[in-house]
Amino acid sequence: MPTSRKEIIKDGVLQMFLYNCEEAKKAGCKSTGNGFKENYRSVPGIGVTNLKLVGEDKTREELIQEMGDGLYITACGGMFACADPVTGKFSLISKGYLVEGGKVTRGVNQITVAGNFFDMLHDIVGISNDYLVDGGMAGVFVAPSVRIKELVVSGT
Q: What are the helix and strand counts (H, E) for the chain?
């Protein structure tokens, strides 16, 4: 997705990080203009606006077929409690569907999906042409279905 400076991800490779002024100074680089505050009392953090992953000419069903065996995650909870914005590590309660032989076979609930957000960006192996629009007061996100090479999963 192009920014005013350059693309953040190009050909599946992370090209840059987002910074507010404080974090850019610590990293020895320039701010990307991504400093935000929830309200006037909060400490500035790093956020995004108008983020859109650009999809390929594949359907969600084609990504599921290509997956073979795995999980199709439809929802994650606890994003703010179990995700570390500094290290990128996360562990989220999730739900979705079990995929066997490229076909959805049954629903799964109360599983935990864990990994590292930065590694996950590098492990994107497919992006579909469908888009989910979600958001709230912090902004709107538009994202297609994404196939990730692997994450750690526990539960049944």
A: 3, 13
Answer whether 114's CB lies under 8 Å from 41's CB: no
Strands 152-154 and 103-116 turn out to be antiparallel
> pTM score > 0.70 for this model?
no
CB-CB neighbours of 108 under 10 Å:
18
5-64 pLDDT per residue, tens: 445 666 767 777 888 898 899 989 999 888 888 788 988 888 777 667 777 789 999 999
Whole-number average pLDDT of the chain:
84
Q: 12: burial class by Cβ within 10 Å (0-12, 13-18, 19+)?
A: exposed
Tokens (6 digits) for 86? 């500094």
Largest CA distance in the chain: 52
Residues 6+ apart with CB under 8 A from 117: 83, 88, 89, 90
Q: Map residue 91 onto helix, strand or coil.
A: strand
43-72 exposure pattern, b = at least 16 Cβ within 10 A, e = fewer:
eeebeeeebebebeebebebbbeebeebbb
Token pair 């935990």 is at which residue? 112
